[in-house]
């Protein structure tokens, strides 16, 4: 094992560049999937004729597909019908599609946890269905949604490593490039990569625990 060679300034900077891509892709995917997942979750919860069933079908299909398959589909299959994205955009789209379906179920479950009597009370007080949803159901449901949502974001950050298969220059990809330079780099590089993932995910875990305490 060559820790000195593996941790040379150039190698460390190369890993930092990859980690920046990982965080960037994860951050954009988190924002997009939260917005889309929120909309889909509310649509499914609202039980709108036809619309809710279509949304439910889409969510179930996506949730039961491997994320790796979705990444391959976006990057390799869509160009066959004239829709082509860059490597980074393909990773973001695939992660967003997959995570939106996961978050939609979390949000729907959180809304379903609110007693139906709360909705009836809101409607009887003169509020519209949307007002009841916004002012009564969401504030109560979000307390139970936040911890699993943050946990899902942690999973998303780790799932970015799957985009290595389409050569996304993220942390895992750059680690593999360095490992190919010398067999003596493998253990030192993977120790550092594991530490970098751990630090970010541990911080998110602490946030989750604090949110759970506030919600209880």
UniProtKB/TrEMBL annotation:
Keyword tags: Amino-acid transport, Cell membrane, Membrane, Transmembrane, Transmembrane helix, Transport
One BP annotation, GO: amino acid transport
GO cellular component, one term: ATP-binding cassette (ABC) transporter complex
Top-level taxon: Bacteria
Family annotation (InterPro entries): AA_ABC_transptr_permease_3TM (IPR010065), ArtM/GltK/GlnP/TcyL/YhdX-like (IPR043429), MetI-like (IPR000515), MetI-like_sf (IPR035906)
SUPFAM superfamilies associated with the record: MetI-like
Membrane topology, as annotated: Multi-pass membrane protein
Keyword presence, Nuclease: no
Residues that span the membrane, as ranges: 20-43, 55-78, 185-204
Domain ABC transmembrane type-1 residue range list: 19-208
GO molecular function: transmembrane transporter activity
Pfam families: BPD_transp_1 (PF00528)
Primary localisation category: membrane
Localization (cell): Cell membrane
Family: Belongs to the binding-protein-dependent transport system permease family.
Matching PANTHER family: INNER MEMBRANE AMINO-ACID ABC TRANSPORTER PERMEASE PROTEIN YHDY, MEMBRANE COMPONENT OF AMINO ACID ABC TRANSPORTER
Name of the protein in its database record: Glutamine ABC transporter permease
Organism: Ureibacillus sinduriensis BLB-1 = JCM 15800
Organism lineage string: Bacteria, Bacillati, Bacillota, Bacilli, Bacillales
């Amino acid at each position: 094992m060559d820790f000195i060679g593996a941790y040379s300034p150039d190698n460390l900077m190369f890993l930092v560049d990859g980690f920046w891509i990982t965080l960037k892709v994860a951050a954009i995917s988190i924002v997009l999937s939260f917005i889309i997942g929120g909309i889909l979750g509310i649509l499914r919860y609202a039980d709108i004729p036809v619309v809710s069933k279509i949304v439910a079908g889409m969510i179930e299909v996506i949730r039961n597909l491997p994320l790796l398959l979705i990444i391959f589909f976006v990057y390799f299959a869509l160009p066959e019908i004239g829709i082509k994205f860059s490597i980074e955009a393909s990773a973001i789209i695939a992660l967003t599609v997959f995570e939106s379906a996961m978050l939609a179920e979390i949000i729907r479950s959180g809304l379903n946890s609110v007693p139906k009597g709360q909705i009836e009370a809101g409607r009887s007080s003169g509020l519209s269905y949307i007002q009841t949803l916004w002012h009564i159901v969401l504030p109560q449901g979000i307390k139970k949604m936040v911890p699993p949502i943050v946990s899902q974001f942690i999973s998303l950050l780790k799932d970015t490593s799957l985009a290595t298969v389409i050569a996304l220059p993220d942390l895992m990809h750059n680690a593999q490039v360095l490992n190919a330079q010398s067999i003596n780099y493998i253990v030192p590089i993977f120790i550092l990569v594991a530490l970098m993932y751990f630090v970010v995910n541990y911080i998110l875990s602490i946030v989750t625990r604090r949110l759970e305490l506030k919600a209880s």
